[in-house]
Design a protein that fits this description.
Shape: globular
Oligomer: single chain
Strand content: 5-15%
Number of domains: 2
Number of helices: 13
Radius of gyration: 23 Å
């Protein structure tokens, strides 16, 4: 039996499985033959990697004109484009963590108008693929105004956003409700460079954006750990559990709720839904910078370690050196490795060593 004699539907199922590797197989199939190019067209972009502003802009143009290419399930998208040689050194482990990296071009040095254009292209892509995307990993090399993305993702299960964001705004629930459409399907969320303060919007945005989140990983940007402690306090359950509240409400109503009402009230929401909290406290601070701040950091770390021992859901990672692990090139390489592992069925960033 020749390839042409196999039903196109069968080839479609095969290509759907084969094209979950970041886009390499999809590109190869497109070049294999005219028949394979035609049959695999709807599967070529099931998983895809976009690196740099040119790739993002080109893919946005493609999706605008070709509806068949919008069946993206797994997307890795980075505004930062590392030097190929440096990326190869990182992947081979030739650079050591404690050594400073060589000078490289950073996205933060781009003109603000370029930031707006890249953001616009990213949003176009996300709007096109929103109905189908399930695992989304985004690396942003400059400060973004929003914590999350202002569009609906009906089937999104896992989201990772690497990069800094402006979060120091006083806000309330109404503000977050209007800014971020809720994503009930989201179960796993990983955010890097998080810096929380007393009156910011990070926790409120999380509670609205991912009401049924089960796995949360946070890498804090605060070198003095206070943001880690503040955020963890917000995540830990209050003294009055939801079950106690439901019980009190039931007593007030005499016979209790109807069956559908009981089911609605019994469903847990964030942060009670959390099954795993992975917390990276941020980069190490050398003693010589400030003795008082170093002591405060030491005491805060001990408090976080105590919380991790008392709550089995919490995993507290060890501190890392300041310079190299927090470079954009290292973040890119590590993020792409974790994303590829996840779409292949591995643990990715959720692996606890």
């Amino acid at each position: 039996m020749t390839a042409h004699e196999v039903p196109a539907e069968v080839w479609g199922k095969i290509f759907d499985v084969c094209c979950q590797d970041g886009g390499q197989t999809g590109r190869s199939l497109a070049l294999a033959s005219r028949y394979f190019h035609a049959v695999s067209k709807s599967s070529q972009y099931i998983s895809i990697t976009l690196t740099g502003k040119r790739a993002i802009a080109k893919f946005a143009e493609l999706l605008a004109t070709n509806h068949e290419c919008r069946r993206v399930k797994y997307l890795f998208m980075s505004t930062f484009e590392p030097e190929p040689n440096m990326l190869e050194y990182i992947r081979k482990g030739l650079y050591q963590a404690h050594l400073p990296p060589p000078l490289v071009t950073h996205d933060a040095k781009l003109d603000p108008t370029e930031h707006h254009q890249i953001t616009a292209d990213m949003y176009r892509i996300l709007e096109f693929i929103a109905p189908t995307v399930r695992i989304l990993h985004v690396v942003i090399g400059f400060y973004r105004e929003e914590i999350f993305f202002p569009m609906e993702f009906p089937v999104l299960e896992e989201l990772t956003i690497q990069g800094p964001f402006h979060d120091h705004y006083d806000c309330n629930d109404d503000f977050c409700d209007t800014l971020y459409p809720s994503i009930p399907s989201l179960r796993r969320l990983y955010l890097t460079e998080v810096f929380t303060c007393v009156n910011d919007r990070t926790y409120l945005a999380l509670r609205h954006y991912a009401p049924y989140l089960t796995h949360l990983r946070i890498q804090c940007a605060d070198g003095y750990i206070e943001s880690s402690r503040t955020f963890l306090r917000q995540l830990l359950p209050s003294s009055t559990s939801s079950s106690e509240v439901d019980k009190d409400r039931g007593q007030e109503h005499g016979c209790g709720y109807q069956e559908d009402e009981e089911r609605a009230h019994s469903r847990k929401e964030f942060p009670e839904t959390l099954q795993s909290i992975l917390l990276h406290p941020g980069p190490t601070q050398p003693r010589w910078r400030c003795g008082t701040m170093y002591m405060m950091r030491y005491m805060a770390l001990r408090e976080l370690e105590k919380c991790a021992k008392e709550d089995t859901r919490i995993v507290l990672f060890k501190e890392s050196p300041w310079v190299w692990p927090y470079s954009r090139a290292h973040d890119y390489a590590e993020g792409q490795r974790q994303w590829l592992d996840r779409i292949a069925g591995g643990e990715g960033c959720w692996e606890v060593q």
